[in-house]
Write a structure and sequence with these properties.
It contains six helices and four strands; from the N terminus they run βαβααβααβα. It is about 45% helix and about 15% strand. It has one domain: 3-Layer(aba) Sandwich (Rossmann fold), CATH 3.40.50.2300. The protein is of the alpha/beta class and about 160 residues long. The protein has a four-stranded parallel β-sheet, sandwiched between helices.
Length: about 160
């Protein structure tokens, strides 16, 4: 089984959205035995919280349920996951700072590596913005998750 971890700052908007989107794709494709998914945040500010209600509502309108609970990223995640996908450069730097081995860094990547249709290098944090920010994040992580699944299926 290949395991993917999505990481953002608080684990209540972007990474749970990607988690839910990929989980939905895995279920539709019948890949629950082949691909695992989770999400985490570099901050501990929202540990135990459900995803932001605005993100949950936007995802629900697309038929995607966000049911994860926020947790903090831990160094051991590098050992437990095959791919650690971060939402922005700040999250990348935070994860990179706790990596102990070259193999850890080889697992670490920006979500924008999987979103070629979008010019942004970072997946924008919609938390302090308007509703359309949540829609943009869902558009971006949907494309990213499609490409992540392709990468996992191709080896």
């Amino acid at each position: 089984m290949k395991k993917v971890l999505f990481v953002c700052l608080g684990n209540i908007c972007r990474s749970p959205a990607a988690h839910g989107v990929l989980l939905s794709m895995i279920e539709k494709e019948g890949l629950k035995e082949q691909v695992g998914v989770d999400s985490a945040g570099t901050s501990n500010a929202h540990v135990g919280h459900k995803p932001d209600r605005r993100m949950s509502t936007a995802a629900k309108h697309r038929g995607i349920l966000l049911e994860s609970r926020a947790r903090q990223f831990d160094r051991s995640d590098f050992e437990n996951f095959d791919l650690v996908v971060v939402m922005d450069q700040s999250n990348y730097d935070s994860c990179k700072a706790v990596a102990l081995k070259r193999e850890h860094l080889e697992k670490l990547t920006l979500m924008s590596e999987f979103t070629p249709s979008f010019k942004q290098k970072d997946i924008p944090d919609p938390y302090y913005g308007e509703e359309d920010g949540f829609e943009l994040v869902l558009d971006m992580v949907t494309e990213g998750c499609e490409n992540i699944l392709k990468k996992l299926n191709n080896g």
